[in-house]
Every structure is written in structure tokens, then in C-alpha cells.
Amino acid sequence: PQLSTLLAAVKAAGLVDTLAGDGPFTVFAPTNDAFAKIPEETLNGLLADKDALTAVLLRHVVPGAALKAKEVPKGTTTLKTAGGEEIDVTRGKYITVKSSSGEAGVIAFDVLATNGVVHLVNSVF
What we know:
By secondary structure, the chain is an alpha+beta fold. It is built from five helices and seven strands. Strands 2-1-7-6-5-4-3 form a seven-stranded mixed sheet. A hairpin with a 5-residue loop joins strand 3 (75-80) and strand 4.
């Protein structure tokens, strides 16, 4: 239920089959509250632009690893996303994720999926 906006966005971008693939994937999944921080006009524009939407969503997916929270090294680690961008994942007292487009904090860890692991984040980055 916390991810219904994300699931709608994944469907709109045509990424359902991609994310249901073999993986493994680490997904930093924005919650409904994270999407609610985006102004409605901006969000509607993003949902209407499949290429831009796909780029934003793939920025939240790291292919090739199912990285659990305890496996994130202390300090900052740069990871390549499914969209080809790099994000910095920092583990200190909390885990944060920073991209060229913003920053988010991990608010729920290690939701295991059949093809990877999902971490809920409090912002779309």
C-alpha cells in the first residue's frame, strides 16, 4: 500500500517486465509520501513523459546486486544505476542516497523480493 504511486509509475513507464526479471536488483523505492512531495503539476508532467519517467525510476534501481543494509559499507559508496547514472549511498547513523537530482533517506530496510531487495526511501531523487 505504501508503494501504490511507485507501482503506477512503473506501469506507466513500461518497466514491469524489466523489474520482474531475474535480477538481482537493489531498489530504493520512493513511498507514496515521497511522491506527494513533488508538486502535482510536476508529477503529472513526469507521468505523461515516458522517457523522463523511465529515467527517474531507473535512477532508483541498482542492477547486479541485492544489497542489504548491513552489506552497505560505512562511508560513501558510488553505485551505477539501471539508467546508467551514478548514485552515492552513504552509511553513517542512517543510510542516505544522493543522485544528481536529489537526496533521500532510507526509512525501511531489507524488504526481500524474489529477485532482490527493496529499501523504502522518503524522497524521489
